Amino acid sequence: MLKRNNRKIWNYHPNLPIQTAPYFNWQPQPLVTFKWLLNLWLPITERGLITILSIFTWIYFSPSLNRCHNFSLDWIAEIYLRNFSIMFLITGILHLYFYSFSMQGKVLKFDDRELATNSRRFTLKNQVWDNMFWSLGSGVLVWSSYEVLLMWGFANGYGILIHWENNPVWFVSLFLMLPLWQAFSFYWIHRLLHWPPLYKLAHSVHHRNANIGPWSGNSMHPVEHILWLSSVSIHWLIASHPVHVIYYLQLQVIGAVTSHSGFEELLISDKKRYALGEFFHQLHHRYYECNYGSSETHWDRLFGTFHDGSEKGLEKIKKSKYKI
């Protein structure tokens, strides 16, 4: 366990130094890369479950395109209420499991500290209430607005609409490729949000959470939500289907919930595990000037902002704005 000045830094951390995806290694490693990708999808992973959820959402809980030619409160409200329910249920269940009922104790929990309940940093002095306000108030609204605009666009011929029957290979391939676009765009949008004027205006709301929990993932200022989710606009340019839009936005929103859960994995019967939080991003919340992207991109390594979790990595960013 890493220590600094005789103080334990983490309650738990994975094997160090942490690694990034092998996609961009100088010497290609096809087998290693294949195994990395396989672990992202099989046997039961977040990415696979979100794919299933998005298909289920499109079939059973989405308005048909022929209702979306004109903006109308009925179909817009359906999308908003569905997204509100998804956010509330998934985030709420994870929070109850890990924090309210402490079903896993602190096993595989990165940060030993409890979520703040009496801090002037947060609205109503409570971290969870603050996070819920921004997530449900701003997050669901912006998420739903992007989806509504794209549904309207598809219905009116502004997008390049494809169907499974017409192009099954591209239809399926998009589910595999969109996470890479999400990882690529996240780095650059995130770096933009750390530009001092934007940080002060918007991103500082998210960074109130040095210690994170499930509700922290989507706790953002509306300006940040608009910028962060703007990468879904790629669907105006590429041939796709509304289910891909739903999938991409759920990948963003639900992925933020799980990656900020504060726990590396969910234990099932003390044996089976479901991957959740990513230590890569946990380091960003603790030290601020590092790990702007995700472990699936190479940008942090390229631009010298990668913190691998080791003592040596810590020394590289010790001049961070925040105290270590």
Description:
Helix 2 (46-60) crosses helix 8, helix 3 packs parallel to helix 8 and helix 5 (168-193) crosses helix 8 (242-259). Helices cover 51% and strands 5% of the residues. By secondary structure, it is mostly helical. The longest helix is centred in the middle third of the chain and has 29 residues, at 127-155. It has helices spanning 30-41, 46-60, 73-100, 127-155, 168-193, 196-206, 222-228, 242-259, 279-287, 299-302, 311-316; strands at residues 3-4, 7-8, 160-161, 239-240, 265-268, 272-275. The chain has a two-stranded antiparallel sheet. A two-stranded parallel sheet has the order 3-4. Strands 5-6 form a two-stranded antiparallel ribbon. The two termini are 16 Å apart. The mean pLDDT is 92.
Quick tags:
mainly alpha; globular; 324 residues; two-stranded antiparallel sheet; 2 domains; 51% helix; 6 strands; two-stranded parallel ribbon
Give me a quick take on this structure.
By secondary structure, the protein is mainly alpha-helical.
Helix and strand topology:
Elements: E1 3-4, E2 7-8, H1 30-41, H2 46-60, H3 73-100, H4 127-155, E3 160-161, H5 168-193, H6 196-206, H7 222-228, E4 239-240, H8 242-259, E5 265-268, E6 272-275, H9 279-287, H10 299-302, H11 311-316
Parallel strand pairs: 3-4
Antiparallel strand pairs: 1-2, 5-6
Helix pairs in contact: 2-8, 3-4, 3-8, 4-8, 5-8
